[in-house]
Design goal:
The chain has 513 residues and is mainly beta. It is built from one helix and 35 strands.
Length: 513
């Protein structure tokens, strides 16, 4: 009897062991199967997303080659799991961050716009412009999401808002203003209009502040767009009017600046321009307000900023400050301060943080004139072609050894290169104006066909100081042009000795690292 019980107990133990091993096997198999299915599901989502990105850039190529004004509507799906901080359009690339990696597709033309910012199916609208294709998640686009104005008391300002119809049908637009702030009178110049296909119209917002206005005032502007075949669209633009009063949004003092602190991100080799509003809230005019950088990191990025000659009593104006970190500077965060000071020692400060992002750069062409040779440098399609009085000389202090190019009365010189398969090209050079009198002018021009030339830089007597200055020209709009010319020239004014001299010419492209 005891033996039989022991045998039954042993059988029970053996069964439990076998059952446990089998259960563990099935659990491991289930875990592997689940992991495999999840992996397969992620792979499917990634492949599907890549398909939609490729479809988008293919459509962009097609609409671009149809010519300026051509439009196209495509379906685009955004899956779950997208990192919208790593999603968008840059240069000629559309990209989506998904499951920790970035999927991308590149078009043959520069792309401007954005991708949808929510999960699900969307329609994207594409339209061709001379140098790019616009990608928009909406068939109607307003150029401002927020209207913010910093103003003085008893002041007037007109702020235009444009709205564009990218659909293939005409529409009616009703504009509704919500505003209940008596110290600030705000009106719009129209509240209803038609908008035909690809048409852009402007609504002017007129703002008047009275003597009692002070602080912040809020409102809303709604565009109601009615379609026949598309779903109707409502677009809201939030309105904030900030009336300088010496308290609240600003700092007590004779100079008020907004924003008082700013953080920007800029790629190496790029330029980011920040617009500041400067106000005079004293009882008299302020003269010769200078803008200088303290001895911090950011003064590496800022060329001298022109002063504000006069800021009348109880008025505001906008001031642009450009930040250009050279391609030689390290990436990372640079901190500093901009000080505004008037001739009577009234001051204000702006705390700046500049986050330099990593661009890698690639030289396309250059010529630093090491010899008196019109074939110098590399990367060009041909030699310098000159007409009139143009020379490569070693006298008159070249910017770098041993020669530089001099252009005199009526002279011009040009050279060509290609931007095919180049991204965000830029031109850097040094130039010097000597001996100019009123009427003398010199030019730096560009062309894509050698027939039509666009002036991108002009010099006159105000630049005549016989000192080399650095210039940088952004040529991003000419990405992928097969032929591109640059020209330096001087007008035919009778001043024979007046000269334009150039040296150290570099053309490069910048690419996300």
């Amino acid at each position: 009897m005891t033996k039989h019980k022991l045998e039954k107990a042993q059988s029970s133990v053996e069964f439990l062991v076998i059952f446990g091993i089998a259960l563990l096997f099935f659990l491991l198999l289930f875990a592997y199967s689940s992991s495999y299915l999840i992996s397969q599901d992620k792979d499917t989502v990634q492949k599907t997303t890549q398909y939609y990105l490729d479809t988008l850039t293919k459509a962009a190529n097609e609409v671009y080659f149809q010519g300026v004004g051509a439009t196209k509507k495509i379906y685009f799906y955004v899956p779950g799991g997208v990192d919208f901080n790593d999603t968008g359009v840059q240069n000629s690339t559309a990209y989506i961050g998904l499951f920790g990696s970035t999927l991308w597709s590149k078009a043959d033309i520069n792309l401007i716009g954005d991708l949808p910012r929510s999960k699900g199916g969307h329609y994207l609208y594409l339209r061709t412009y001379p140098d790019y294709v616009l990608i928009s998640p909406s068939i109607v686009v307003v150029n401002k999401e927020v209207l913010y104005e910093l103003m003085a008391k008893n002041a007037f300002f007109r702020d235009p808002i444009s709205i564009t119809n990218y659909s293939d049908e005409s529409t009616n637009v009703n504009v509704y203003l919500t505003w209940n702030n008596p110290p600030v009178n705000l009106i719009i110049d129209t509240n209803q209009f038609g908008l035909s296909q690809t048409e852009t119209k402007t609504v002017n917002v007129d703002i008047n502040t009275n003597a009692l206005a002070s602080g912040l005032y809020f409102g809303n502007l709604r565009f109601c767009v009615d379609f026949n075949t598309f779903e109707d669209i409502n677009i809201d633009v939030l309105i904030t009017v900030d009336v300088v009063s010496g308290y609240g949004s600003g700092t007590v003092g004779k100079i008020f600046v907004n924003p008082p602190a700013k953080t920007i991100s800029v790629y190496k080799g790029d330029t980011e321009t920040v617009t500041f509003t400067v106000c005079n809230i004293t009882a008299g005019d302020l003269n010769n307000i200078t803008l200088t950088t303290d001895n911090y990191d950011i003064n590496k990025f800022i060329f001298p900023v022109s002063p504000i000659s006069v800021l009348p009593f109880n008025s505001c104006l906008s001031k642009d400050v450009a930040f250009t970190p050279s391609i030689t500077y390290a990436t990372g965060l640079y901190m500093g301060r901009i000080t505004l000071e008037s001739s009577d020692a009234q001051t204000a400060t702006i705390d700046m943080n500049v986050n330099v992002l990593p661009y890698k750069w690639h030289q396309i062409a250059y010529d630093n004139f090491p010899t008196a040779n019109y074939k110098g440098g590399s990367g060009w399609l041909d030699d310098w072609y000159k007409t009139g009085q143009v020379s490569i000389i070693s006298t008159d202090n070249p910017h770098s050894p041993s020669y530089h190019m001099q252009v005199l009365k009526g002279g011009s010189v040009n050279r060509s290169l290609t931007f095919l398969f180049r991204q965000k090209p830029k031109l850097e050079f040094w130039a010097k104006i000597t001996g100019f009198i009123p009427g003398d002018e010199a030019y730096m021009k560009i062309s894509t066909n050698y027939l039509i030339w666009n002036t991108v830089k002009k010099w006159d007597v105000t630049n005549s100081n016989a000192t080399y200055a650095f210039y940088k020209i952004d040529l991003s709009n000419y990405t992928n042009y097969p032929f591109f010319w640059i020209m330096f020239s001087r007008n035919s004014n009778n001043n024979q000795i007046a000269s334009l001299e150039v040296d150290d010419i570099y053309v490069f492209e910048t690419l996300p690292a």
